[in-house]
């Protein structure tokens, strides 16, 4: 595998903590340049359930180096990595039909449990060819795909998958093999219109999905439709985290009639917690908050955090949301204020000051003593270096003029050094040093 230096294009923000792509090199060393043989698509007609999201950790296995060209098939007898548990690629470009090579690597790692693909470019991969390569991993429990590159291929049914994250473009098709997941994070960049049909035609319900983290642009109708497609497919959803974002102004309106048309029976029957992050206070966004409060009968907590670019102040949003009718009598509305960088620095300074005030007097004196020693040391270094630099400069000037260096400046330099040393000496040692200094001065005068 070769590292790719291409940067990411702007995409939808991620709501969860720790799902953002990192900047490390691939933790899987070596190269696996073998293209996979053409695999036949497997039917997935059985009803599947669940949904999931997670991040994978760093792996530890490495493939043996191969001297053959990257477009040649793997060496005969290559059995993969049967003990590999975690595979993590970050900012990597896989050349020559990279999707096939990746599928072969995962398929031949029979014990793999976690796969994380962050900013991985599959060179030569056709995004329109769904059956060009297939991910098969019966023991896989966590799958993360976060990138700005469109991928081809598909994911076969993963019976052990519990957590998954899909952040990027045209990744909704990978949900076809994630029916058993319990946690899911889903975010699309700008191509929501292409994902609506895929999400609306899911042949199953996520019957195990308990937590959903999703980024939604409430100014785009396709994003709202895709959002409700996932909500209708999760009948047992308990926690919903919505991160709002937008690159423009609102051009469509999602009123009560539209929202009621998207709702089905039992849609929020088990929804307990809703967290709205980066709320920009668009009409559609505030209307969705009102819709949730009026439909979720067992809702316990609704937290709202305004974004830095919100159209209204926190006080106005609080007044508006508190007036919305609530279907659950136990629902608590919590308003969170986002901390900017400056208050965060002030908070750190306040903590440091509190720690300093709680110190004992001995600790304060010890720090002051160390600081005083440091200042004295720096002052002595500056005094000693200054004459030495002058001496070197004079030598250089004399050598340039073709003359010889006399010994008198050298004696003066030594005398200045002795004077600096005697100033910091014990009084009992000082007379002896002064005597030696006097002798050196007499010798210097004799020169």
UniProtKB/TrEMBL annotation:
Biased composition range(s): Low complexity: 10-65
InterPro entries tied to this protein: FBL13/AtMIF1-like, LRR_dom_sf
Region: Disordered, residue numbers: 1-77
PANTHER family: F-BOX/RNI SUPERFAMILY PROTEIN-RELATED, FBD DOMAIN-CONTAINING PROTEIN
Name by which UniProt lists this protein: FBD domain-containing protein
